[in-house]
Structure formats: structure tokens, C-alpha cells
Fold this protein.
Amino acid sequence: MRLDPRAVLARLSRDDSGATLVEFAIVTAIFIFILFGMIDFARLGYSYVMANKATDMAVRMAVVRAPACNNVPVLNQRGLIGILSLDLPNGSSCTERDGLCVDAGTISCTGDAQMATAAQIWARIAPLLPNDAEIGNLNFSYRYDPALNRVGTYYSPVVSVELTGLDFQFISPLGGLAAFAGAANASSLGTAIRFPSMNASLPAEDLR
């Protein structure tokens, strides 16, 4: 029995029994991609907000605790002008004359678990950050500001805390789902995203 090729092609062109299944597969892939994308990008927004809150919390804790860095002065010493300015007693503002107090500059360091203040701050904010965050993502700095200090009194710097190097990890295979749905060049979709650095500053407070 010989088959007429034209009859076979005509029959196939009229047969749509599998069309619904193909359409269902395409629509399902797109729906799953959108669903998981919404979930992951909602997580991304939440993680970013919590990291900002963690930065604010960290600096608020740092300003009322001992410095997280070594070599931060305890007292405001007299500078060369201060030694010569006998008419200005201890307690005078460091802004009275340039050089009245020693300019301590800016002292910075990376978070270290061996430093008590850094360890206390990290224990408080770590639950708010992505799972792969480490104490080394914290940076502390203590900057001299003459307007905040008085000669011979406790040193009061501007304290800054910075969170750097935080990555957000997607949990859903967005790249694979996008490729399955027919997207081109989807291999980079769903890879880790690096958060921008987050910084907060406050003047130190002396609880004594």
C-alpha cells in the first residue's frame, strides 16, 4: 500500500490534537518564571531594607561603646598652639584656635571578632543580613571634628559604620526558567547581586 505524501501532509495540517499541550507548556513556563521572579525580587527588596536598618543599628551601638578600632584617643590633648595658649583652660572648645587640640585624623579598621565592640555589634545585626555575610563586611571609622571636642576632655569623634561586599543570592533558577520560556542570553539572570556600600555616621556619645 503506497501513501500519497500530499495526503499525509494535508492530514497533518488538519491535526491539532497536541496544540493545547504545547500552549499549556509555554504558558506554564512563563507563569512559573513570573511567580518565582516576584518572590525573589521581593526578597531582594526586603534584604536591602534590612541591611540599611542593620547599618543604622550598628552605628547607634558604636557611638555608645568603646572604639572598635585600636589607637583611638581617649582624651583631647593640647596641640602646639594649645600648649602656648595658657589663657584657654581645659574645657575650652577645640575650635577656639586652630591647633588648640591635637588633630587625631581618621582612624579606620575592619570588623574583627577579637574586638569586643565589633563582636557585640555583629552579634546584634548578623540576623538581619544575608546568610553569607561576615564580620569582615563591617568597616569602622573614627574622624576628628574640633566642633565636638574640648581640650583636656574625653575624645568625641564622628563614628561611621559601613557595610560592604554584601551579596544577594537568588533561590530560584530564573536563568533556566527564562531560557525554557524562550528567552535569549538568559544565563546571567538569577546570578548573585552585589549590594552597594551602606554607610551611617553619628557623633560619639560619652555615657560617663
